[in-house]
Amino acid sequence: MAMTNEHEALTDPASVAIHDGDARDFFALLKPRVMSLVVFTALVGLLMAPGQIHPVIGFLAILAIAVGGGASGALNMWYDADIDQMMGRTAKRPIPAGRISAETTLAFGLFLSVFSVATLGLMVNWLSAGLLAFTIFFYAVVYTMWLKRLTPQNIVIGGAAGAFPPIIGWACVTNSISLESIALFAIIFLWTPAHFWALALFKSEDYGRAGVPMLPNVAGERTTKNQIVLYAVLTALSGIVPSIMGFAGLVYGAIAAVLGAGFIWYSIQVWRMPDGDKKMIPAKKLFGYSLLYLFAIFTALLVDALVTKYFGLVA
Amino acid sequence: MEKVELTEQQKKARRSRSVALGIALAVLAVLFYVVTIIKIGPGIFDRAM
């Protein structure tokens, strides 16, 4: 391949893709909003775990987990580019918008997957690296390639991928999986269905157009609303488990109970929403509250852990 | 030989990607150096010659 100094001369121009995408587009492939949740929940797992980790190693661990989570997002965008272009929420992503090619996204996602897992293994421990590799596999293959287009239970099972980060953060410190880290996993795992089905209710036309079998499209609004209330109750209960198990204090338990009651209240508002409602305001409110809920629960866990661990106080 | 002339937007995007890649590599080099020192510590000098 002949090149000028500016790498602009090519023997076969048609054979080489020239990107319009800049660094921000590549960053968008990592799903930064999902990544922020991954970073935060992994950090809470890491700080709550019994034991010590050097701050720089801890920072590197969180960075590797973030990049691994981002890599799975890129692989998801590579595989889902065909349906992303049909949905308003995703049509502006870099591949459907034509700014980055699907092949480049695949290479980017695979490279970052291998790099993040290898970094975590070599610099922290191989249990956390193995868990990160499994999380990427679960999200990219089990959820994206298999479940998403197959079953309305897609996000129930696929939600496990988003729930793994606190277990990985915990394993970075202890080199083990414990009941406590599984309790943190359970909060996110049980939270995911109500969160996504609230979105699926007011975006059901989008999902229907793309042929994704979300619960409202397959089983109808009534069934979805019943399931939302069920999972909201399970989420609220799982939120107080850390306090019952004794690895979070009573103040945390009280905060989790109030937040959980709010989650159930918003889910009941959705349940009471008439079928066929066009504005779906209760569903939008539940979606917004669910994000606040998860952030608040993990912030409360973080504060509880820091107060207990670093100041020796029992809340 | 046929040449590909990049548009101004493509040149700008390429510059943006290059800068981001450069920063990422520099940060990683520093980070890996620091982690190596932390993990090996003074033992980094304790090796067979």
TrEMBL record, chain A:
Keywords: Cell membrane, Heme biosynthesis, Membrane, Transferase, Transmembrane, Transmembrane helix. It is found in: Cell membrane. It is a multi-pass membrane protein. It comes from the Bacteria. CDD domains: PT_UbiA_Cox10. The keyword Protein biosynthesis does not apply. NCBIfam families: cyoE_ctaB, PRK04375.1-2. PANTHER family: 4-HYDROXYBENZOATE SOLANESYLTRANSFERASE, PROTOHEME IX FARNESYLTRANSFERASE, MITOCHONDRIAL. Converts heme B (protoheme IX) to heme O by substitution of the vinyl group on carbon 2 of heme B porphyrin ring with a hydroxyethyl farnesyl side group. Belongs to the UbiA prenyltransferase family. Protoheme IX farnesyltransferase subfamily. HAMAP family: CyoE_CtaB. Carbon 2 of the heme B porphyrin ring is defined according to the Fischer nomenclature. This is Protoheme IX farnesyltransferase.
